[in-house]
Amino acid sequence: MTAIDPPDLALAREFKERPYGIHSPALQTLLNAMRRGPHRGRWALYCSKPAEEWTLVQLSGERGKPVTFHPETTFRTFEEAEWHVFKLRWKAMTGRNLELG
Amino acid sequence: MKRIVGYGDRLAVAPGDRIDFRINCEAGDRTYCAGIVRLICGDDHTKHPGFRAEPVATAIDGDHPGRRQAIHAGSFVEAPPSPAFAPPAGWSLQAIIWPTLPGGGAQTVMGCWSEAGAGYALVIDAAGCLALRLGDGAGGVEEIATAAPLLAREWYRVFASWDAATGAVRLVQQPLRRYARGEDAARRGVVASVRPRPAATTPFMLAAHDGGLDGARRIPRSAYNGKIDRPRLVGRAIDEAEAERLVEAPLAVDGLLAAWDFSREIPSERIVDLSPHRRDGRTVNLPARAMTGYNWTGEVHDWKSAPDQYGAIHFHEDDLYDAGWDVDFSLTVPDGLRSGVYCARVAVPGDEDLIPFFVRPKRGTTTASLAFLASTATYMAYANNHTAFDSALREMGRGELIKLHKDDLFLNEHREYGLATYDTHRDGSGVCYGSRLRPVLNMRPRTYQWSFNADTHITDWLEATGTACDVITDDDLHREGLALLAPYRAIMTGAHPEYLSTLMWDAIAAYLQQGGRLMYMGGNGFYWRAAFRGDDTTAIEVRRGETGTRAWTAEPGEHYHSFTGERGGLWLCLGRAPQRLVGVGFVSQGFDAATFYRRQPGSFDPRAAWIFDGVGADEQIGDFGLVYGGAAGSEIDRHSRRLGSPPHSLVLATSGPHSNTFFPAIETETDLIPGQGAPENLAIRADMVFFETPNGGAVWSTGSIAWSGSLSHASYANNVSRITGNVARRFVDPTPL
After folding, report:
1. By the CB < 8 Å criterion, does B104 face chain A?
2. Distance from C-alpha of B591 to C-alpha of B706, rounded to nearest angstrom
């Protein structure tokens, strides 16, 4: 993984504004770095209530081993979920909480 | 938690046909409720249109007794039990092997061994070394190992003999390729203390040993991963010179009991014994055939031209063909049942399974001028796809978080339910066979996975707009060809008709030539060749070749189908670019965002302007939809005169720019040049195309998988629905275009 140094909040704002769709090259590079991470522990979504709710999970990265649920963390939309995971990964990469102010 | 799951033995039926359903109550429920529903829309991810199904009363309605039914995965060869497998003088075993997961758990290569600890077998032990296991069935077990770890994906001659008079054992692990510093060659000569006594009911097996029977099904244990070539059994302990002769001249060795030749009858499940004893066997769970053997030189790539170089079978612990469950209930499709998509619904508290099947009109009749051709071949290629779990690149490729459903979790934790042709086996090799004789958990409504559920956006639109339409399938098309299509004025494909057999392709081409009309409602269609065994559509075969945007690549020499002997791969590479058939062909894919089309000059041509009745000149077509928010997206196709789009074809509308995850399909590029991705590369686009075919026929192609997800927007009052309706109405009108 590549650390963001220094963290560019403009990229975070761009992603929050539009998580799906055409991204600036710099944002796309950041997203690729985030998504290139290890498969074990990868954040993913589980459809807990169709058309209503998705729950945060983590993949085991190993065939046959179950996912880890985070039942306290749920989302109503994909955009919410993408933003939440973006912040988790920002923290993991930079050591800092993402504060857009 | 998944509590109930099942499958039917037939997918494509007509009134009067029977489907046998087999059900597993995984959590132990003693009763379940069954019924039949007509499926209109299977997508429950949105409130509109939402999941819609109508119950249909049939004789199977009501409660049924429940039970657990297990699946036993792992491919192997079995020759029926025989006293010959316990020869009084002793025996010798030999094969040439290419193990792919030595050290990945104990694996049985060949022998006559049962779980009771009786018999003999050549195995790879937990340390990845060749070993001979002997058991007397009374508690005496002995294992003699080489203690030299086998290398993965290297060829070895493996040999073991036991002399009944002296108890002498000889064990040989001979690498066929010599490296300068190799430590994987080994020989052992010992006197065994255990006298092996195979049980009379134990078959001789290759790539697993006998775990007993579950009903009529043999349970494989210690499944072997890798290739086996030229397996032999002799009824005495032979010397080294005879062992070497045994490889290519088994009939010259005295006391030969069996010499199985995997290069014979490759398209079948039969294993031929060259010895005069004809101890023929069978494969179970479709291990991969038409595999290069130890002696493949690389000069011939078509197994039919040099079958002796294709004497290997590649076995996998996670192969599955026929789950072999017992029948729980049978449905005789009622006379007069309307043609459509149906499901057998089985339910217990807290869970249900909806098992699809497709009902055509009574054979020899039609009940509409239009037919929807359900992409059952494609559903089978994707059957039980695990890439959401197994692919570390998936999130990056798709540009979106991985999304999982209850059925995905079950498939991950129950690997015995088998894999899809989009998966790799645990040993890394590509999965080349798909089967429907097992629960196919992603060919279901109420799931996110591709691609059956996406097609229910089309069946939903047909229902909502009152468009009369019969339902037929790829299964029917493969078996009946042109005769199936000819009575229809027009055919509508699904969103993703990606896989076709040669017979299917020929039938569609002939249909168009003789005046048929085709609405190609999808993208990435007509892409890969698929093969079936004759009329039997229970298993599909795919060989992913040297190009193509693909989940795996077949090994060199293994690009030809075992089922048919045809060369596999992209139709593009077989001289049949999709552009030649439907005017457009695969160019790119992206799974985070879709977009709209803009009209092109071709859309104002009087030949095609009627397609846009009710649509303004500058309207954005499909800037809405359930599939990533637009009508042009997911997998998209482009017009290309160079690749064969007819010279008179009209490009009606085009999309773009697309988002950053869209790159050119691998087969469209020959060099590594920057700037080829979207949004800057405008060659990445979906083209909507129209052209006439001889005798009053025509083709209209959307070039986009996402198209059908836009049909229901604003309660079907939108320009995607409008255009589709214009074409459907005009195409069933026999007036010349």
Report:
1. no
2. 10
Distance between CA atoms of residues B515 and B510, nearest Å: 9
Cβ–Cβ gap B659/A43 under 8 Å? no
Tell me the pLDDT tens digit for each residue of A11-59. Answer: 999 999 999 999 999 999 999 999 998 999 999 999 999 889 999 999 9
Distance of residue A96 Cα from the nearest chain B Cα, in angstroms? 22
| Three-state secondary structure readout of B444-480 | CCCCCCCCHHHHHHHHHHHHHCCCCCEEEEHHHHHHH
Q: Determine, for residues A22 and B412 on separate chains, whether the beta-carbon distance falls below 8 Å.
A: no
Contacts of B606 (CB under 8 A, 6+ apart): none
Closest Cβ–Cβ partner in A21, A50, A67 for B45: A50
Which residue, chain included where needed, has tokens 């190009």? Answer: B547
Q: Do B404 and A46 touch (CB under 8 A)?
A: yes
B265 contacts chain A (CB < 8 A): no
Q: Is B426 on the interface with A (CB under 8 A)?
A: yes
User: Does the global pTM surpass 0.90?
Assistant: yes
Interchain contact B400–A (C-beta under 8 A): yes
Nearest chain A Cα distance for residue B523, angstroms:
20
Q: Which residues of B594-628 are buried (b: 16+ CB within 10 A; e: fewer)?
A: bbbbbbbebbeeeebeebbeebeeebbbbbbbbbb
Beta pairing, strands B62-65 & B52-56: unpaired
Give me the amino acid identity at B18.
Answer: R
pLDDT digit string (tens) for B286-336?
A: 999 999 999 999 999 999 999 999 999 999 999 999 999 999 999 999 999
Spatial CB neighbours of B402, under 8 Å, sequence gap ≥ 6: A42, A44, A45, A59, B388, B394, B395
Q: Is the pLDDT of residue B259 over 50?
A: yes
What proportions of chain B, in percent to the nearest 5, are helix, strand and coil?
15, 35, 50
Reading the block at residue B65, the tokens are 């007794």
Question: Nearest CB to A23: which of B390, B413, B660?
Answer: B660
Is the per-residue pLDDT at A4 higher than 70? Answer: no
Average pLDDT over residues B258-278: 98
- Are A66 and B403 an interchain contact pair (Cβ–Cβ within 8 Å)? no
Yes or no, beta carbons of A42 and B45 under 8 Å apart? no
Interface of B with A in 586-645 (CB under 8 A): 592-593, 628-629
Task: Give the per-residue pLDDT at B449.
Answer: 58
Which residues in chain A have their CB less than 8 angstroms from residue B47's CB? 51
**Nearest-CA distance from B720 to chain A in Å?**
21
* pLDDT over 70 at A1, yes or no: no
**Cα separation of B477 and B358, whole Å?**
13
Chain B interface, best mutation among A1, A40, A43, A45, by max B CB count within 10 A = A45
The distance of Cα B389 from the centroid of its chain, to the nearest Å, equals 17
What ipTM did this prediction achieve?
0.97
Mean of pLDDT over chain B: 97
Question: Cis peptide leading into B356, omega within 30 of 0?
Answer: no
Which range is least confidently modeled, B379-388, B391-400, B446-455, B721-730?
B446-455
For range B102-117, the mean pLDDT: 96
Specify which residues B21 forms β-bridges with.
B8, B329
Give per-residue pLDDT as tens, B123-170: 999 999 999 999 999 999 999 999 999 999 999 999 999 999 999 999
Q: Report CB contact under 8 Å: B396, A35.
A: yes
